[in-house]
What does this fold into?
Amino acid sequence: MSYAHIADTAALIHFRFDDYRIDATYMENAGSLANLDSLLQRLDVSSVDSVVVIAGASPEGVYEHNLYLAGKRVQSVKAYLVGSYPEWNEKILCRSLGENWLALRICLLQDKSLSEEMCQKVLAVLDADVNVGTKKWRLQQLDVYPFLYEKYYRRLRHAAVCLVYRRQTEMLPAGPLASLEVTSELSGVSADSSEWPGSSADSSGLVLSELRIPQRAVQSWRESREIFYLSSNLLCPLANVGVDVALGNTWSMGLGYSYPWLWRAADHKHCFQLLSWAVDAHYWFGAERARSYEDRLEGHSVGMSASFGYYDFERNYQGWQGEFAAVAADYRYAWPIFDDRLHLQFSLSFAYLYSVARPYGVPERGGKAYKRNYTQRLHYLGPNAVELSLVLPVKWKLESR
It folds into this structure.
């Protein structure tokens, strides 16, 4: 039995160069997002078969990085939809296109400003049986390449969102979804920016083309999802570890353990030993709907933490042993490095600390410590920690439906 997937409307969301975050101020995104929001608020979830999200990258630069970038764009749009409309989560189908060569071809074929000769030269490069790197290099050698880059490449960095309704024969719109593998002629997409679906000039819907495709609108794919984050302070290496778990897109909870039980001089003149445990909660700033699963714990955050522990500090044969408890306000800033494989995180905290200390002395070199016959109750309010941490996102592969 065959089905039809008919799209009544769609949004085309554009991305800045080498970026995967949704920027409502960029190009026609404000109008596209407003139209999409208006439609999803009116629709009944049960009336829609699926919400198709497809994203690509412009064919320039390193191929592997473009695959990564297209995948992140898919996840950003999915996070936008789920963050705003969680009831649609089970309907969302995703696919990363990688480099968007097919959309470039469509733009080229429908651009009447190019001469037939120049168009054929570009098509010859696109159709050449060579590797992707060679194809990009050959394109860049053409006189028309600066024109193509300025007019089309920014429009290839997009994600298409389409609401699909099932009917008796399976159909999908062309347009930005034309990058699906189909067996019939692609049509209905104009190279003119004003005619792109989701633009300010035409955001009411997609031009439909009857395309015979597999029953599933989008093939399943694998995506990575962070399940927790491991961290360690580089300013005190190998002496602490932390674990954070994201709660939604803007909150996180964490546990920390510090163990610089490092040093006691053989002559008992100096000592620095500390064990502490901490729990914290942080709020991460930024537009919740623009965050993907992989960048939730990036950017600025503020939070609160509580810690306790015990210590043994000594200098020049005079020391203190005791327990402490502290409550702190924390600021963090984290940014991704190595294509988001790791994060670098700076943090600064101000705390109120309470401790009961037992002073002691060591009367002879290498001898026994003797406790004083009194205790001290200590109060401290001020900065208590500076960290520059390396964070490892621990991921789990998930199979989409």
